[in-house]
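so the lab meeting is tmrw and i was supposed to have these ready like two days ago... anyway. pasting both below. for each one the top line is the aa sequence and the line under it is the C-alpha cells. i havent really looked at them closely yet so no promises
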Amino acid sequence: MTQPDYIARGGDLVMAPPLELNGAIMYSFLVAADLGALQTICDEQLNAVCGPEIIYKPLAPFAAIVCADITDSFSTVPPDSEKGWMSERDFGVWIPVVQGTMKDGTWQAGKIGWYLPYVFVDNVAAMVTGREVFGFFKQTAALMMPPAPDAPGAFSVDALVIAKYSPESQAQVLRLMTMTSTQSTPAPPGSWAGDVKRAFEDVWPKIKDLIGDARGLPIPIWDLLKNALEDLVTGDVPMVFLKQFRDATDPTKACYQAVIEAPAHLVKFQDGWFTHPHDITIVPVDSHPIAAECGLGSGTLRAELGFWCRMDFLMKTGKVVAER
C-alpha cells in the first residue's frame, strides 16, 4: 500500500527526523525496580502489540531516571531544516529491555533497547514531534534542574495530574517528582573528556554491583556486556516506543497501534562524571502511578549510582517492529 504524503499545515510543530540535538547534558540516576512490574509493562504495552513472535523482557531489576537539558535541536532534512531550532528539557523513566524472538518454543535474546513509559518535556514542539513521529509518550511539564553538574540544586517535575480519580476531581499542576542532593561533584581534571570508552569502563562495574546476582535474568551478564560494547562502537542506542492513537468512532479502541524502534546516534561525547547519591521522591497520584507501575517501591528512593555526560546526538528515523 502506497503511503500518502504528509500534509504540512500552518502551526504544525512536528519536525521531520533525523533530528540533531546538540549541547545535551544528561543526568542518569539508577534505582532498583521490581522485575515483575517491569515485565508487566513490557507485556501490556509492547508484547500486546508484537504478538507471540517478538517478546520484550526487562534486562535487569533496575530503571534509570534520566534528566536532560538540550541546548538546541533541529531537523536535518529540508524543508524543516530551514525553519530554525529550539531548546528543550526532557525528564523520564528509562527501562532497559531486550527484544527476543521465539524459536521452537524458546525465547532467544536479541538487542538491548530502552523503553520510556513516562517522559516529561517543557516544549510543546518536542511533545508533539515525539508522540506523533516516534511514539515517545511525552507530556508537557515545568522542569527544574541545577545550572551545572558542579552546582548543588534539585531536579523537579511539576505536571498536570489528577490526584484521586472521581467525578468531582479537577486536574491540577502538582510537584510530581523531586531529586535532591546536598552535595555537588565537580569533574576531576581529565575525567571522561572525549572518552566514551573510559566512561563505560568506569560505570560498568558499578552497574554490575547494582544488578548483583545475574542468575535468572533474561540474558547473562556476558551477553549484556557484549551488546553494550557493540552499541558503543556503533554509537547507536536503540529506543523502543509504543505509538498509538485513540479511535474516534470507538474510543475503547486504537485506530493505529505499533511498536517502533529508532536509534539515538552518539555524534560527539564531550565529558562527564559521577554524581553524588540522590534522594528521589515520587508523589503517588492516580493519573501517574509512576512508582507502582515501574516497581520502584514507595517512599523516598535512594539512587546511590548516578552520572552525567555532555554530548551531541542524532535521533534517527525509526522502523516498525509490529503494528495493528
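ok protien two:
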Amino acid sequence: MAALRNGRLPLATALVGLLGGLTAAGGAAATASSAPQRSTPRAGVPASPRLGDLLTYDYDIARSGDDPADPAIAGLSAAARWDRHLDGGVYAEPLLDAGSAYVATENDTLYALNARSGALRWSLHLGTAVSGSVLHSTPTAGCGDIAPLGITGTPAIDPANNELFVVGEVELGGHANWRYIRHELFAVSLTSHRVLWKRRVDPPGGNNPNRYYIGAEQQRSALTVANGHLYVELGGLYGDCGQYHGFVVALPESGSGALQSYQVASAREGAIWATSGATVAPGGDLYVATGNGASSSATDFDEGNSVIALSPSLSRLGVWAPANWVQLNDDDWDLGSGGPVQIPGTSRLFVAGKPASNGSVGYLLDEQHLGGVGGPAFTGALCASGGVYGAPAVDPTAAGVLVFAPCGSGTTAVRVAGASFHLAWRQSSGAANGPPILAGGLVFALDWNGGALYAMSPTSGRVVLSRPTDALEHFATPAVGDSMLLVPTQSGVEGFRALG
C-alpha cells in the first residue's frame, strides 16, 4: 500500500449518499493533500450545566464522565430506594433531565420515570426488537450475545429543542425475517412524548454479500449530538461473525437531508463499539477507536485497532495505530473495546483496550498529530489483569489530570503529567470493571460480573461504600443526578438515594 503521510491514507473512505434505497456509495474520495483541515468551533450538546442533568453519555461529548453540577455525596441509601422492572435489559446509561430519568431497553421501549420515586411517567414502544433466531438466520451472522436486540447504545437529549434521540434495531413491519432488520433513529419530543420523525441509519449497500449484512451490524455505542448533526457508530456482534464493517453515520439533527457515512477500511470487521461513542473535540472533530480488522499483513494497513480522527462531515483527518496492530488483529485484542477520552486543558487523548501479549497498556496521543502506524505515543502499564471495556473517566481538577480506567481487575487510576502518565492507584477492594463516573466527589463504578456498585476516593482508590445490585448487563454505566444514583440492570433500573 502507499505510505502514510502525516497519519493520512491517500484515499479517504468517507461515503456520502441519500438514505433509503441506495446500493452504492456516492461522493468523491479526497487525497491526502486535499484532506480537510481542522474545523472551527461548532456547537454541540454542552456539558450538563444544570443540577441533576445528564443529557448524553458520560455528561459531555468529550466523554469525561465528570458530573459538573451535583453536590457532594456522603453516602447512599442502604438499599435501592426503588427498583423498576421494565420490558427488557438495559445496556444504555440512564439519562436525567428536569426530574425525569429516561431509560431505553432491548425491547425497543423508551421509558420516562420520576427520578426520585421510579414512578412511570410515560413510555413509548418504538418497534419490534430483533429476536435471536431472526438475527442468527442472517447469512454469515451466527453469533451475538444480546437477544432480543433492540436499543443498546445510550440515547442523547438536545435541551434546546427538548428532544431525545435514540437508535433501535427493529424488524420492519413485524416481519420475522433477516431481510427486514433495520437500524432506525427516532426523534422523540419530551413535551408531547411522541415520535417526531424516524430515519433509517444503515449505510448504503446493506445485505450485499460483497459489502455487508445489516443483521451482522450492532449499534452499541452512545449516540452523539454535535455540529448540528447526529452521529451513530456501528460494529459487529459478539464473536465477530459475519460480513460487517465499522461505520460512523451522520445526518442533520432535523432528520432531513443526506445521510453521510465513514467506513473503516478493513475488508471486514474494524468495529466501532465502545460504550462511549465518538469523542468530540472543542473544534467539532470526532475521534473513534476501532476493533480488530481483517488484515494480517504489515503492508496492508486496514484501520483495525486504530484511533481515527474525522471532520464533522466524516472526512478522515488522521489515524494512529500501535506498531503491533497486526498482532492485535490476529488475536482479537481490540484497541476499540474502550473509547478515547480527551485530557482536559491539553491536546492529548488517552485510549486503552483489551490486554495483549505485552500486557494491559494505555496510550497517550497528540490529537492534532496522530502520526500514523507506530506514530509517537506514550505507552504505559495499566490494568493488573484484564483489559479496558468501556470509557474511562477523567478528573480535570486534580493536579496532573487523573484518568479512571475500567479494568477487568477493578477501577485503576493513572495520573497524566505532560506527555506521559504513571499509575496512581488501583481499587482497594472488589473489582468494579464497568465504566466509571466522577460525581459528588466520588468515583462510582459497577461490577457487571458480580452485581455490585462501588464508590471510591478519587485520590486514593479506597472503597468508601459498596452496594449489591440486581444482575447487570455488560459494560453497565451508572448515572448520578437529581440526588439519585441510577443503576441500569438486566431487568430495568434501580435508584439509590444520594445522601449529602
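from a quick look at the 2nd one: The chain is about 0% helix and 35% strand. Confidence is low (pLDDT under 50) at residues 1-44. will dig more after coffe
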